[in-house]
Design a protein that fits this description.
2 copies of one chain form a homodimer. Chain A is an alpha/beta fold. Helix content of chain A is about 45%, strand content about 15%. Chain A has helices spanning about 20-30, 50-55, 55-70, 75-80, 95-100, 125-130, 130-150, 155-180, 200-210, 225-230, 240-250, 250-265, 280-290, 290-295, 305-320, 340-345, 360-365, 400-410, and strands at about 35-45, 110, 120-125, 185-190, 215-220, 230-235, 275, 300, 330, 355-360, 375-380, 385. In chain A, a hairpin with a 2-residue loop joins strand 11 (about 375-380) and strand 12 (about 385). The longest helix of chain A has 27 residues, at about 155-180. The termini of chain A are far apart.
């Protein structure tokens, strides 16, 4: 059945084993701020797991060094050039040339921390360093999962994946039943950063693409797998844009507005999905997005806080602007499971369009508690970066920086649950 | 995961995808009665399953024709030559030469019967025609199972085998717990004629050989898999010997005794396991096996009737001859499941040695009722063959022939459950 990658076997074989959002973000960064020096660093939110006890530093180094030897396969650069689902010619030649021939992953730093965690990160020109994220997450997750499975025989591993297959089957049956009952469900695999192993995400994407039609299983965030299984590569942007932009401008508000117009200058409507929660979605809706943009953009991605409240507030937001929310979309992507997906799709049916980016619970549900691991931009031009999000427990940044930005935003614990428009 | 063989893909790729017992029996037949004309024919005991509705005759023909094009791989003939677990040089050069260079599977016959079953068999010199059995059973079973799975997606098939893996894991855990509790269990895979698919038996043999030591998982009846997974090829003889011998001699008793002495003239002690139930094991113990043979032979294979009663009677049989039953072995091989294996091993612990030949329930427990299919010798030199067995429901032969042999044996329904020694 499935074979756990052996010691020494490369976990990342292709630079396209990454999230699709890295490419549109990469192009905008390449065009607007390629040389801003940014630092990305890994954070293990599962603090009870002492990563340094699970992962051999030497082996992790070998894996990361291997990634640095890879060049983008030209055939896949061609596929990127030919990507037209988000508008024709979404990627420009200068950026494709940069990614294929000039992009160089900066040296990473790696050490054991005294608290048993790993300090892993990289500093370099933004257009280069931003590409590290998914490779680091995939490698660390795979090495961690492999260590958990160390004592198991091949047959016990087969049995673990047998159970995982049956859990996947249950999820599929629930989705099929919900769809048959008239609940409009469409979803994408967003597990690239989260999957237990690359082979397991590969298997899941293959299964979902065979079982569901295109308008139900929309695609995968994994570019390599999207090409392999002939489904759409899914993704737009992530917090790193808003986080770095904040320190590039004097004003938080100006920086955020600039990020939106920069995005608009790069891409067509297909990519107009706003990730609004970096400094809280209430702040975004009230101060950043203009009524014209609200009318033009396709919708929002919800990535923190209560998704039902987010949906209700989004509907009221559109209504307050005289926009019919039924013409707009919410992409839910925060810690989804199948029951939440069905509940949300059912709850908002006929009121606002919904789709789902399904990650950890889709491809890291094999009987072990998944790591909550992120690689985030933490500094730009020497200044500390901050993400607040709609759930303050997910805030990222130095406490003093977080407090400063909270004050600037007017963020308080109730802010994002009380509609202000 | 597992891939069901596609239409047109050969199911039998090697003439060693057969039961090991075919080779010792083959050698004795080659030496003693190579040219006796014998007819082998398939019987589907699962009469409720109309095979002709499940299996395309043309495809079955293609598969059988393909088997007729195969030659024994010389490397595996060498392995046969080097087989020494049953005594050095168990196979003689003339027989090895025959099997490698001269043995020719006779033409088969195949047609739809009016009752919806398939008439499939072959007639020819015994030393040739006896080799058809396992290839026919494997092909028919695979085509039948493939038809059952026809409507399933690859993922549904994955889920079926995921469940089958978890069932296998349960069985393994039960065996391990029983062994840990001091119950002396050893067993072999006897599923060559019964496995759902060759790949599934392959997987199971691989798993068992990795999990259990040699003295627990003793080996497999499948010669090809024994070599592939480096375990012992298991098998001695089957009913066809006793059935054909009966019509080669005037007297039932003389023929059976001759079969035993012919066997002794061919092989060493390692193969001295008597399959006693062809005309009932009571008859065999009372009239066929001599006290000297009972003392010399390692033991019996139990293949029909109540295994607990068989064991009790075997113990009393040995005791009546002044032989310590604890030095003797029963190989149980009739429709075993894990609970029966554990019960029998526990029940006879310290009284007589036991081992188990585990077939259908080991390798055809994937959620569909397995076929009860046999290919048996039905005629020799134009005379109808009979097998009574310890369970008259398993009797084979024309009713008039069965009645005749029953009278000759003195078989009545109670005969084999009432000890007569």
């Amino acid at each position: 059945m499935f074979r756990i990658p052996k010691k020494g076997e490369p976990i990342i074989d292709s630079l396209f084993q990454t999230d699709f959002y890295k490419f549109p973000m990469g192009q905008m960064i390449y065009h607007k701020h390629p040389n801003t020096i940014v630092q990305y660093e890994m954070t293990n939110r599962s603090t009870e797991v002492l990563l340094a006890e699970h992962i051999d530093i030497g082996e992790l180094k070998e894996q990361l060094d291997h990634v640095m030897t890879l060049s983008p396969e030209n055939s896949k650069v061609k596929a990127l050039r030919g990507t037209n689902e988000y508008g024709n010619k979404m990627f420009e030649e200068d950026y494709l040339d940069f990614f294929e021939h000039k992009m160089k992953l900066p040296q990473y730093y790696l050490e054991k921390r005294k608290d048993g965690q790993l300090r892993l990160g990289s500093i370099g020109p933004w257009a280069d360093v931003m590409n590290w994220e998914i490779y680091m997450l995939t490698i660390v997750t795979s090495l961690y999962m492999r260590n958990l499975l160390k004592g198991y025989s091949q047959f016990e591993i087969d049995a673990i994946f047998a159970k995982a297959i049956l859990k996947l089957q249950e999820k599929i049956k629930k989705l099929q039943a919900a769809i048959a009952a008239g609940i409009p469900i469409s979803f994408s695999d967003f597990s690239t950063r989260r999957a237990a192993f690359p082979f397991w995400q590969d298997y899941i994407v293959e299964v979902l693409s065979e079982i569901f039609p295109d308008d139900v299983f929309r695609g995968t965030s994994n570019v390599f797998l999207a090409y392999k299984h002939n489904v759409m590569a899914m993704g737009t942007n992530a917090h790193e844009i808003m986080m770095v932009y904040r320190v590039l401008f004097d004003s938080l508000m100006v920086s955020q507005k600039q990020a939106l117009t920069d995005w608009e200058s790069e891409f067509g409507l297909g990519l107009y999905i706003a990730l609004s929660d970096t400094y809280s979605s209430d702040y975004f809706n009230q101060y950043i997005i203009t009524p014209e943009q609200a009318a033009t953009w396709k919708g929002f991605r919800q990535d923190s806080g209560d998704p039902f409240i987010f949906g209700e507030k989004t509907i009221r937001f559109y209504e307050s602007l005289g926009i019919d929310p039924r013409t707009k979309l919410i992409v839910f992507s925060d810690g989804l499971d199948v029951d939440t997906i069905i509940k949300l799709a059912s709850f908002f049916k006929g009121r606002i369009m919904t789709t789902f980016g399904w990650g950890t619970n889709l491809a890291n549900d094999i009987g072990f508690k998944p790591l909550s691991l992120v690689v985030k931009a933490i500094k730009a031009d020497g200044k500390g970066l901050v993400k607040l999000s709609d759930n303050i427990a997910k805030a990222i940044g130095k406490p003093t920086d977080i407090e400063k930005v909270k004050r600037e935003v007017g963020y308080h614990e109730k802010f994002f649950v009380t509609p202000t428009y």
